[in-house]
Here is the input.
Amino acid sequence: MINLLDKFYAPDSGEILLDGVSLADYDTAFVRSRIGLVLQRNHIFNGSVEENIRYGNPDASFEQIQDAAKKSYIHDQIMALPQQYATSAMALSGGQQQRIAIARMFLKDPPIIFMDEPTASLDAIATEQIKNSMDAIKEGRTVVVISHSISQIIDADCIHVMQNGRIVESGTHEKLYAKAGAYKEIFDAMARSLNVEKIARTYDDVGD
Here is the structure.
């Protein structure tokens, strides 16, 4: 889906519209210049942390790079590194590299962002930090998030549930859950797998 939306491929049938205009009619470079990507595995090259963030905007100042890092909740961790922004980005953990990719998005400041499983294979603490970064970057732009984790998309303006390559339900979390269909089945399975009831009781006990 992201390959189609980013014009890496053309659809075999049907049509993709952007603001009512066929995506095929847009200049490819123009479209991609206005799209940011945060994927499961982002391109982190063998350069410094500063250089990897600057990839989002080669003309950015160091102050702008720092600001982007602060917005993606990675600045303090960078400052704790031996060479700070001059440290090799290859030395960062998976969660830190993911936030570098999000910092690039802040620096590029595109009106459209695609995120594909942005917290895959990350621990709970890193996932929370990435979610904070995601919540910050969503302000004032269109963000498409593809995720098996409902916690990443529960606040979306519109959720599309896909099965076997087709959209089977669409709506907000509340409306989809009330339908008692595919979304509710997925949500309830997630709640059971996370043992949400026991987690809730733990919070209640702490509160008492």
